[in-house]
Design a protein that fits this description.
This protein has five helices and no strands. It is mainly α. It has a domain at about 1-55: Orthogonal Bundle (Arc Repressor Mutant). α1 (about 10-25) crosses α2 (about 25-40).
């Protein structure tokens, strides 16, 4: 753990001091929690989402290129349905 020093205006210090007293913790701990939630929390969520996405199509037997996939969707029955209306 590294030590740092912050300058807080009176309003912010008073709010942090009140929260620290009600939660029975220190202002330093509140600042660490806030910094962790702001800068690390979102990174962890993105990393977990990407890990869940990796290998999502590994069980598919055929490998279709993106171009072929789009062309197959365009050859669908949608245009025929639109012409009937």
């Amino acid at each position: 753990m590294k030590r740092t020093q912050l300058y807080l205006d009176d309003d912010l210090w008073n709010v942090l001091h009140a929260h620290a007293r009600t939660e029975k913790t220190s202002i330093s701990d509140l600042v660490r929690q806030a910094a962790r939630a702001r800068y690390i929390g979102k990174f962890d969520e993105r990393r977990d989402a990407m890990q869940a996405f990796v290998g999502i199509r590994k069980d598919r037997s055929e490998l279709v290129s993106a171009v072929d996939q789009v062309r197959s969707l365009r050859r669908g029955k949608r245009l025929g349905r639109l012409k009937k209306k």
